[in-house]
Amino acid sequence: MATLKLTYFDYHGGRGEAARLALAMAGIPFEDDRVRPDEWPRRKAEMPFGAIPVLEVNGRILAQSNAINRYVGKLAGLYPSDPWEAALCDEAMEAVEDINNKLAATRLLPDERNKSQLQLLAEGPIPFFLAAFARRLENRGGVYFAGDRLSVADLKVFTLMRYLRSGMLDYVPTDLPDRFAPKLMEHYERIKSDPRIAAYYAKLGVRL
Ligand SMILES: N[C@@H](CCC(=O)N[C@@H](CS)C(=O)NCC(=O)O)C(=O)O
Question: pTM (2 decimals)?
């Protein structure tokens, strides 16, 4: 078994969370390297693209969250082997990145522009994407994003939903998923109640 070290920020969400969940769900041991904000300027210089997550595999470094999710998904049995289902899994993960990138672009804006940009996202792109996710899910039978079993795509969408519902995002109402994507809420609740997910967060003392 490869020696794995997953480096990401020290919070229970974001671009590193799906890989952490996949490894934990499959019982694959890994070093959970959580970077504190004060360490980041020094650590950033060590990262291939100046960003995290990164995964170290027997000393070799892999960057980019979705590349990591695919690799870890294969190790964990949470990435489809069928080419079409794998493409569906990728589609959902890339769509989450579209939203992540829009949200990330607001972070360095001065206060007033940050507020207006987040309000604009909450009025347009976020509801649009939520409804689109819900439609894609329904088209595929309403249970999983790729094939008839759980994949890293479900874990990544779940992580985004947790974030949107968490209240961590100023000016983004936490009830957007309930209002615009009830089917996606059912998916969220299903993933949340998976005993492996519940056990993972319970062990970390995180209330879901
Ligand atoms: N496309 C990259 C984006 C990585 C990224 O921007 N990560 C953020 C955290 S979610 C980061 O490292 N931010 C700190 C920085 O850029 O200094 C991926 O999907 O992994």
Answer: 0.97
